[in-house]
Amino acid sequence: MKKILALLIAVVMIFAFAGCGKDDNSLTVTEGKLTMATNAEFPPYEYYEGDKVIGIDAEVAALIAEKLGLELEIVDVAFDSIIPGVQQGKYDMGMAGMTVTNDRKEKVNFSDNYAKGVQVVIVKEDSAIKTVDDVAGKKVGVQQGTTGDIYASDTVENGGYGEENVTKYENGALAVEGLKNSKVDCVIIDNEPAKAYVAANPGLKILDTEYANEDYAICFAKENTELQKKVNDALKELIADGSLQRVVDKYISAK
Ligand code: GLN
Fold this sequence. Notes:
The protein is an alpha/beta fold and 255 residues long. 36% of the residues lie in helices and 22% in strands. The chain contains 9 helices and 13 strands. It has helices spanning 2-17, 56-68, 79-87, 102-105, 147-153, 172-180, 191-200, 225-240, 243-251; strands at 33-38, 47-49, 52-54, 71-76, 93-94, 108-110, 115-124, 140-143, 166-169, 186-190, 204-206, 212-216, 219-221. Helix 5 links the parallel strand 8 and strand 9. The longest helix is centred in the first third of the chain and has 16 residues, at 2-17. The chain is globular, with a radius of gyration of 21 Å. The structure holds glutamine (GLN). Residues 39, 42, 79, 96-99, 117, 143, 146-147, 190 line the site of glutamine.
């Protein structure tokens, strides 16, 4: 009887741990490390300085890792690979100026919100598109898998522009290239990267009218509620003592 019970427990344990993709007792995929997936083409949240990924998310994640006693490792992947990778247990978390949406909530858990985003429209300075209302029927560039893509690709009845009018680029920088080369008439993207791209590319501007307001948060695998909780505790401390704001100011407000 005892043997059968032991066997049963062993079987249950194997099932419990299979597919978790992390060490049995470890909080993270690799013990001692906090592996963060991001898409480092999203200034000022994540971008390259030399061969290093810097930005608001990178610095906040480093502060979180420090509080958790873990070493931060940043992995740069396509934006639409972040959630699948987190679900499969390849990465501990995804942090990429990621908007909290109901669809994504079905796949991953989110931390508390740590920033606000706004979807805006970038056009050429002499564009016929003067307001968001002029976008209908024009060619729209987006970053694949982002909320800008999701809204724009939706049907006209649902407030989108129709899949056939949307060109999906692998990242924001390529979408902006598409606009400069007149492959698309506008780019729908988050406001802070939009500002950075416009500053870096003369002849472009952001429309005054905003497209959608959003919250950014960090995502985790549904199973890893322990890490989600620890990160939330760390985030609360970083918000309370002003550290998070200091990082934001360094990259945004203080500019
Ligand atoms: N905030 C947008 C989203 O979550 C874009 C994020 C990004 O491109 N890194 O879809």
